[in-house]
Design brief:
The structure holds two protein chains of two kinds. By secondary structure, chain A is mainly alpha-helical. In chain A, 71% of the residues lie in helices and 3% in strands. Chain A is built from eleven helices and four strands, in the order E-E-H-H-H-H-E-E-H-H-H-H-H-H-H. Chain A is globular, with a radius of gyration of 19 Å. In chain B, strand 1 and strand 2 form a beta hairpin. In chain B, helix 3 runs antiparallel to helix 4. Chain B has a two-stranded antiparallel sheet. The model of chain B has no long low-confidence stretch (mean pLDDT 88). Classes of the chains: A mainly alpha, B mainly alpha. Chains A and B meet through helix 4, helix 9 and helix 11 of A and helix 5, helix 10 and helix 12 of B.
C-alpha cells in the first residue's frame, strides 16, 4: 500500500477531504464576516447562529412542508437574508455611531437568543438531514472513494466564494459597496442610498451564512449548537487572514481547514487546537494577519 | 461657577454617592447570611469580584476581553487540584490559582495586545476557547466530571471552613480585599494612565507612555483578580468544572458589567447580583436562561448602555456616562 511518512495514502486523502469540507465552511463564513465588517464595522457574532438557522430552516421546510434540498438551497438564504435585513434595520442601524464593541455585544446577545430558542424547542441532540438522492452514493476516483455530496459541497462553496468575490470586485453594486467602505459620507453625497446599502450588505452576509448552513445540513447533524462551536474557530480564521481582503478570508479559510485535516492524520489530539495554534504563531510573526492591512 | 469647578463639584458628589453606596453595601453584606441562604450570597460575591476584575480592563482601560472565563475557571481548576491532589490548605491553593491565572493572563495578554479594538476581543475569545479544549482533554481536569469533592479545609491551620458562616465571612473578606485592590489600582497614577489609554490611545503614546506595557499590566492584574474569585468559588462549591471555562461564562461576566454599568466601581457588583439572582429564579421556572441573557444583552446595548449604576449617576448628578 502506498504510504506517505508511514501513513496510508487513503487515510491521508480522506482526512484532507474532511479538512477541505471544513475549510469550505470556514471560507464561506469568514467571507460573510469580512463583507459585513468591511462596510458595517461590526463583528457579527450571530454569524454562527445564522448558519445554524439556515440548517434548521432547511430541516423544518423538509419536515413540515415537504420542501426538499434543491428548493431549500434558494429559499433558505432568502429567508435568513431577510431576517438579517430586519435585524439590521431595527437594531444594528442604531449602533453605527457607537464603539464597534457594542455591535459585537448586540450580535452576541442575538446569537444567544436564536440558539436558546432552538435549544428550547428541539433540545441539543442532532437531527439527521438526508443527502439529496441526486447526490447520494459516491465515486471511485481510483486513488480514493469520494462521497458525491462532499464533492458537491466543495464545488458549491468555491462557486459561492468566487461569485461573491466577483460581485464585490467586478459589478457596479460591488463598486458602490467598496466606495462606501472607504468613505460613506462622500458616497452618500453622490446620491447612493448608503443606509439601504448597509441593509443589503448585512442581508448578503446573513444569506451567505444561511446558505452555508443548508449546505452543511447533510454533512453534519442539524443541531442548535452547530453554530456556536464553529463561530469561534472562524474568528480565529479571521484573525489569521485579516479582514482587509475578501480573497484573503477565502484562502485562509480553505488553508486552515486543510491544516486541521492534516493534523487529524499526524496528531489527532491536537486537531481541535491547531487553528488556534496557527493564530498564535501568526500573531507573533505577523500581527496584522496574513492578508491584513492593519486594523 | 466656572466649568472646571462645576465639574469638580460633580466629581465630588459622585464620589460621595459612591462612598455612601459602598458603606451601605458592606453593612448589607455582613447582615445578608442571616437572612439569605449563605451559599447563594457567596456565589454572588465570587461573581461580583469576577465582574469587578473584568471591569478593570473594560471600564478603565477600554479593552473588551472575551476570554475572561479562562482565568476564572482556570484558577478554579488549579486551586481544586492543589487541594485534592496535593492536600494544600485553602489559602495556599487560592494563591496558587491566582498566580496561575496571572501567568495565563501574561501569556494571553502578550498575544492579544498585539492587535487593537475588535481584533483584541476575537483573539482573547479564541485563546480562551483553546484553553477550554485543553481542559476537555487534559487528564488533571477529569474531563466532563470536573474535579469533585474538594475539601474546604482549615484556613491557616486554625479556622475550619466547613461551618457555613465561617466560610461566608472568609469569602466576604476575599471579596473586600479584591474590590479594595481594584479601587486602589483604578485611583492610582497607574490607573489614571490606563484611563488616558482608554480615552485616547494615540495621545497616551505621544505623551511617552509605553501603552503596550500598561495594557499588559492591566490585563495581568485583571486576570489575577478574576482568578482570585474563581479559586475562591472552587473552595466554596468544592468543585471545579468545565462550565467555568466556557465562552458562555466569558459572556456572562460581560453581561454583569454591562448591566451594572461599565466603568463604575459599584456597577459590576450590582450587575453580578442581578444576573446570579435572575439565573437562580429562572432555574426553577423552566424559562431558558440563554434566551433571557441574550435579551438583556440586546436591550442593554440598544437603550441602556450606561447600565443601572451609570444611569443612577447620570440621573442624580447630571453626569454623562
Amino acid at each position: 500500500m502506498l504510504t506517505v511518512f508511514g501513513i496510508p495514502i487513503q487515510a491521508l486523502l480522506g482526512q484532507l477531504l474532511v479538512g477541505l469540507i471544513n475549510g469550505s465552511f470556514y471560507a464561506m463564513l469568514s467571507l460573510g464576516l469580512a463583507v459585513i465588517f468591511g462596510l458595517l464595522r461590526i463583528i457579527n457574532f450571530a454569524h454562527g447562529a445564522l448558519y445554524m438557522l439556515g440548517a434548521f430552516i432547511g430541516y423544518l421546510l423538509l419536515m413540515h412542508l415537504g420542501i426538499g434540498y434543491w428548493p431549500a438551497l434558494v429559499l433558505v438564504p432568502l429567508i435568513v437574508g431577510l431576517f438579517g435585513m430586519a435585524v439590521e434595520r431595527l437594531a444594528l442601524s442604531r449602533l453605527y455611531r457607537l464603539d464597534p464593541l457594542y455591535g459585537l455585544l448586540f450580535t452576541f446577545g442575538l446569537a444567544l437568543v436564536i440558539e436558546g430558542v432552538f435549544r428550547y424547542y428541539y433540545g441539543v441532540s442532532g437531527n439527521p438531514y438526508a443527502v439529496p438522492t441526486l447526490l447520494a452514493g459516491g465515486t471511485n476516483l481510483g486513488f480514493m472513494f469520494l462521497p458525491n455530496y462532499r464533492g458537491w459541497v466543495v464545488v458549491a462553496s468555491l462557486i459561492v466564494c468566487i461569485g461573491t468575490w466577483l460581485l464585490i470586485e467586478k459589478t457596479r453594486l460591488g463598486s458602490y459597496l467598496r466606495a462606501a467602505t472607504e468613505n460613506p459620507q462622500l458616497v452618500q453625497a453622490f446620491g447612493v442610498n448608503v443606509p439601504l446599502l448597509l441593509t443589503l450588505t448585512y442581508g448578503l452576509g446573513a444569506a451567505l451564512a444561511g446558505l452555508a448552513g443548508i449546505l452543511a445540513a447533510p454533512v453534519y447533524q442539524v443541531s442548535p449548537l452547530m453554530g456556536s462551536d464553529l463561530i469561534i474557530v472562524v474568528f480565529a480564521v479571521v484573525v489569521v487572514g485579516g479582514m482587509g481582503s475578501i480573497l484573503g478570508a477565502i484562502v485562509t479559510g480553505y488553508m486552515l481547514g486543510l491544516a486541521e485535516g492534516l493534523t487529524k492524520v499526524f496528531y489527532p489530539e491536537a486537531s481541535n487546537l491547531v487553528v488556534f495554534v496557527i493564530m498564535v504563531i501568526v500573531l507573533l510573526l505577523r500581527p496584522a494577519g496574513l492578508f491584513g492591512r492593519d486594523a | 461657577m466656572s466649568e472646571a469647578t462645576l465639574h469638580q463639584e460633580r466629581a465630588a458628589a459622585s464620589l460621595r454617592l459612591e462612598r455612601a453606596l459602598i458603606a451601605l453595601g458592606i453593612v448589607a453584606l455582613i447582615a445578608a447570611p442571616f437572612f439569605i441562604y449563605p451559599i447563594f450570597v457567596m456565589k454572588m460575591l465570587c461573581f461580583a469580584l469576577f465582574a469587578c476584575a473584568f471591569n478593570l480592563l473594560l471600564g478603565y482601560t477600554g479593552l473588551l476581553s472575551f476570554g475572561h472565563a479562562a482565568f476564572f475557571g482556570g484558577a478554579a481548576y488549579f486551586c481544586a487540584y492543589a487541594v485534592k491532589a496535593w492536600g494544600w490548605p485553602p489559602e495556599a491553593a487560592i494563591l496558587l490559582g491566582t498566580a496561575g491565572a496571572a501567568l495565563m493572563g501574561l501569556v494571553m495578554g502578550f498575544l492579544a495586545i498585539r492587535r487593537q479594538g475588535i481584533y483584541f476581543s476575537m483573539i482573547t475569545l479564541a485563546l480562551a476557547q483553546m484553553f477550554y479544549f485543553f481542559c476537555v482533554q487534559a487528564p488533571f481536569t477529569e474531563g466532563e466530571d470536573g474535579i469533585q469533592g474538594v475539601a474546604r479545609g482549615t484556613l491557616f491551620g486554625i479556622v475550619d471552613l466547613n461551618a457555613p458562616m465561617t466560610m461566608y465571612f472568609f469569602v466576604l473578606a476575599v471579596f473586600l480585599i479584591g474590590i479594595f485592590a481594584v479601587w486602589r489600582i483604578v485611583n492610582s497614577p497607574f490607573g489614571m494612565i490606563l484611563r488616558s489609554i482608554r480615552e485616547n490611545e494615540n495621545r497616551a503614546i505621544s505623551l511617552g507612555y509605553s501603552v503596550g506595557r500598561y495594557k499588559l499590566a492591566a490585563f495581568v492584574m485583571s486576570a489575577a483578580l478574576a482568578g482570585f474569585a474563581g479559586a475562591t468559588k472552587a473552595i466554596v462549591f468544592q468543585f471545579a468544572t468545565l462550565t467555568d471555562v466556557t465562552w458562555q461564562m466569558s459572556g456572562e461576566v460581560i453581561l454583569m458589567t454591562l448591566l451594572g454599568g461599565i466603568g463604575t466601581m459599584v456597577g459590576p457588583v450590582a450587575g453580578a447580583g442581578l444576573v446570579v439572582g435572575l439565573e437562580n429564579t429562572l432555574a426553577t421556572s423552566g424559562f431558558p436562561v440563554t434566551i433571557a441573557t441574550g435579551l438583556i444583552f440586546m436591550v442593554c446595548v440598544l437603550i441602556f448602555r450606561r447600565g443601572i449604576v451609570g444611569e443612577v449617576y447620570a440621573r442624580w448628578l447630571g453626569r454623562k456616562g
